[in-house]
What does this fold into?
Amino acid sequence: MYDFTSTLVLANAARTIGITLGVLLLIVFAIAILFNMRKGRAEVGSEIELAANRRPYLDDDELETKKLDRTLGAGLVILAVIGIAFPLYWLAEPSRQTNAVEEFKDIAIRRGENTYVNGAQCASCHGPNGVGGVANYTITDPATGDYVAAVSWKAPALNTIMYRYTPEQVTLILNYGRGFSPMPAWGAPGGGPLTEQQIADVIEYLISIQIPAEESKAAVQAELDKTCAADSTGNCTVAGGSYKTLGEAVFNLGYSDSFAGGAYSCARCHTKGWSYGQAQVPGGGGFGPNLRDGSEIRQFPTADQQIAFVSAYPKAQTSYGSQGMSSGRMGSFGVNPNAVDPKTAIMSPDQVMLTQEQIAAVVAYERSL
Ligand code: HEC
Ligand code: HEC
It folds into this structure.
């Protein structure tokens, strides 16, 4: 929460100091005028003292040695003070500026957190600190609006959202939501309730809660070990496990236990019904296109091309494969788009959703569908 009271107290203190200084200056000014007037009155008509221009001034000895030395000495001291003060100021300035930026950022993060928890209640679906969760949702017939089913829809973890999307791409998701799902539009462009500033603040908050690479990697590995401990050929060895290959297990990460709200899976976008536990044809298409029946072999003549696509997802409105056009909505799974340019990076290059081995496995699975 932004601390308004202390800001007010601070503002009041600054004003009090200002007023006190002002009053002091006025008093000094008044006293000076008083003295001047008295002095002036005393001089009128009196010739007790010689007028200033008739009084003999200091002689050459006094002027050229002592006085000159004293003046030059004072100048030197003042020069030294300036010479030291400016470099000190100059040295301190960058850190003062950085601190100011940090402070603004901290305030934005706190405002964003407030929106995440209270204002928009993102936390009620995506979990505290963005660990992922579920949303109760009523599916209706798009044509008639009739009730179809009440379901629990997985809400993906957001503590790795900056692993796969740039802040601009997240802004787009927040502005328009996902119409077919419980995720509503939040921004004004999509008719939502949040302002541009509130969306920017929520994104600052999301950036601040991204988990370290090792934590994400270990969690994915532990989940895969539960559903598919793969042997050297990539076949699953977990007895009674539902997946035959590592690729199939990666594709469906979190289906049975909603691990990370399905954030690491591909099926939540490529298999209809997957997000609410009623998965239909695997890879048959949903928010993302159908991947079956050799479509991926036609789109990407070699597996390497497909691995490159899944790893580093192309920007919106750029073409990919033989006839693909990116909508900018899938996200990168093997290269962090926020760590590509070291100068502007806000994430570290090892913060990625899946290892290259896992991506190769899931691509092999998709090509077999
Ligand atoms: C009523 C529940 C609900 C609320 C409230 C909600 N979301 Fe969502 N959100 C979802 C669901 C469900 C999805 C996944 C939709 C799908 O299946 O593609 C989602 C998807 C997302 C995605 C895309 C994630 C991805 O990897 O595809 C982002 C980002 C997101 N939400 C952020 C937010 C933020 C930020 C807020 C608060 C301003 C918020 N959501 C509020 C339910 C919700
Ligand atoms: C948030 C939803 C989403 C997730 C999660 C997702 N995809 Fe996609 N995927 C899409 C969309 C949308 C497209 C269509 C291309 C576009 O619009 O940019 C696509 C396209 C593809 C394509 C190209 C299909 C074609 O024939 O043009 C492949 C291959 C693919 N995805 C693989 C994967 C893999 C592998 C994963 C998991 C590691 C994955 N996707 C996760 C949404 C998603």
User: Anything to note?
Assistant: Residues 123-368 form one domain. The CA atoms of residues 219 and 312 lie 22 Å apart.
